[in-house]
């Protein structure tokens, strides 16, 4: 019985040993299948091919950025932007084709879609100093178009509070202190103690290399929604200081009673005020004052004219453009007690869901946004190019 028990014990140990050996061999095979070992010849071919394709992608997105910059210049019309957007979509389709289809069949007969799927492999490299050979792992990371070119961006209102004029109250971006503007508005002189999106943009961008965040201005707007239809007739009675934009009295040069007479007069003085006017509908009852560069709009309406605009405004009105903050990474803002950006305390701006696949350049705002997306995509591709360059250097000719 003792001998039989010992035989069973030895048999059990032997079975476990062979099971362990089989498991190790299986894991070795799986590992070999998961991370193939390529010859230096294979590595050279795949490295040079991947480098050429990544450079082609970079060139495509450099052109994409150029198209977005052209579309964002504020001069082009809708038809021109549609044409540019069409070319942009064609370039994006070509980029998708490269990412999805580029592949390499190694000397073992295995095909690797190294951009779409990513590709890990090992090869034998030679030390340049000692001359000895050793295995080294490399990786071409998957290139996902749905993630390429994502940015962190948010638009904040600039809120002016006359009871809290100082806004030097602990404003930081990613821990970098933002200097306070030294002037109220860098475009139009003012008698008010306030600040503009233009002034804040300059301050934020003066430290953008340290914070990693840049600022852009959006357009300033003041909408007239309750203006009577007979305003052309009433416009004939306007006098100095009745209707003043950024310190300039608006008086019609034409006495024709047309619905566009007030808009024409405002636009006649736009080179002095920096402000233009446009209809919001087919009737003069709704129109808008706007400034594309984000300067402040200071509007004075005399007391005798206030009823003309349906009680929408006070005698002295002040409009500030919002400000857009953008980065290629998530960033954190800190604002002290004065909520001039609409909040106090800390706020984190995360990466957007939009990548290069979702963006368009059909209007100025989206085109400005696209410039940042494409720049982020280019930076990503340049980093990948440097990484692939290390693969090429591993197996020189």
Describe this protein's structure.
There is one protein chain. The chain has helices at 2-34, 40-71, 78-101, 197-206, 208-211, 231-235, 261-268, 270-273, 364-394, and strands spanning 104-105, 111-112, 119-126, 133-140, 152-156, 172-173, 176-177, 214-217, 220-224, 243-245, 248-249, 276-279, 287-291, 297-301, 316-319, 323-327, 331-335, 345-349. The chain is of the alpha+beta class and 397 residues long. It folds into 4 domains: 1-32; 40-148 and 374-394, f41 fragment of flagellin, N-terminal domain; 152-218 and 322-351, Alpha-Beta Plaits, CATH 3.30.70.2120; 220-319, Alpha-Beta Plaits (2-Layer Sandwich), CATH 3.30.70.2120. It has a 4-stranded antiparallel beta sheet with strand order 7-6-17-18, with no helix packed on it. Strand 6 and strand 7 form a beta hairpin. Helix 2 (40-71) packs antiparallel against helix 3 (78-101) and helix 2 (40-71) packs antiparallel against helix 9 (364-394). The longest helix is centred in the N-terminal third of the chain and has 33 residues, at 2-34. It starts with a helix and ends with a helix.
SSE layout and pairing:
Elements (H helix, E strand, L loop, with lengths): L1 H33 L5 H32 L6 H24 L2 E2 L5 E2 L6 E8 L6 E8 L11 E5 L15 E2 L2 E2 L19 H10 L1 H4 L2 E4 L2 E5 L6 H5 L7 E3 L2 E2 L11 H8 L1 H4 L2 E4 L7 E5 L5 E5 L14 E4 L3 E5 L3 E5 L9 E5 L14 H31 L3
Antiparallel strand pairs: 1-2, 3-4, 5-16, 6-7, 6-17, 8-16, 9-13, 10-11, 10-14, 12-13, 14-15, 17-18
Helix pairs in contact: 2-3, 2-9
């Amino acid at each position: 019985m003792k001998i039989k028990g010992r035989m069973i014990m030895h048999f059990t140990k032997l079975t476990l040993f062979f099971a362990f050996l089989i498991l190790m061999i299986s894991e070795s095979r799986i590992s070999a299948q998961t991370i193939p070992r390529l010859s230096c010849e294979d590595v050279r071919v795949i490295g040079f091919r991947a480098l050429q394709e990544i450079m082609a992608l970079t060139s495509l997105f450099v052109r994409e950025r150029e198209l977005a910059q052209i579309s964002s210049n504020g001069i082009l019309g809708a038809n021109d932007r549609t044409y540019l957007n069409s070319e942009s979509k064609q370039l994006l389709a070509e980029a998708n084709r490269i990412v999805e289809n580029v592949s390499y069949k190694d000397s073992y007969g295995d095909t690797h879609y190294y951009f779409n799927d990513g590709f890990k492999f090992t090869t034998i490299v030679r030390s340049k100093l000692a001359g000895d050979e050793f295995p080294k792992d490399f990786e071409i990371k998957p290139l996902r178009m749905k993630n390429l070119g994502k940015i962190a961006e948010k638009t904040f209102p600039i809120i002016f509070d006359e009871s809290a004029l100082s806004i030097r109250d602990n404003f930081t971006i990613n821990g970098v202190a933002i200097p306070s503007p030294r002037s109220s508005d860098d475009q139009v002189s003012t008698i008010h103690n306030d600040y503009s999106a233009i002034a804040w943009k300059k301050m934020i961008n003066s430290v953008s290399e340290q914070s990693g965040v840049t600022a852009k201005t959006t357009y300033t707007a003041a909408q007239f929604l309750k203006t009577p239809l007979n305003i052309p007739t009433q416009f004939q009675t306007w006098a100095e200081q009745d209707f003043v934009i950024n310190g300039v009295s608006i008086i019609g040069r034409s006495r024709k009673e047309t619905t566009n007479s007030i808009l024409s007069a405002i636009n006649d003085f736009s080179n002095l005020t920096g402000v233009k006017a446009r209809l919001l509908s087919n009737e003069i009852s709704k129109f808008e004052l706007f400034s594309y560069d984000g300067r402040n709009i200071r509007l004075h309406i005399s007391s005798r004219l206030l009823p003309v605009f349906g009680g929408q405004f006070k005698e002295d009105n002040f409009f500030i453009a919002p400000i857009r903050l953008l980065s290629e990474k998530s960033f954190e803002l800190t604002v002290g007690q004065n909520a001039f950006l609409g909040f106090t305390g800390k706020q984190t701006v995360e990466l957007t869901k939009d990548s290069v696949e979702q963006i368009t350049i059909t209007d100025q705002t989206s085109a400005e946004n696209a410039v940042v997306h494409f720049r982020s995509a280019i930076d990503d591709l340049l980093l990948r190019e440097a990484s692939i360059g290390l693969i090429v250097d591993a197996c020189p000719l």
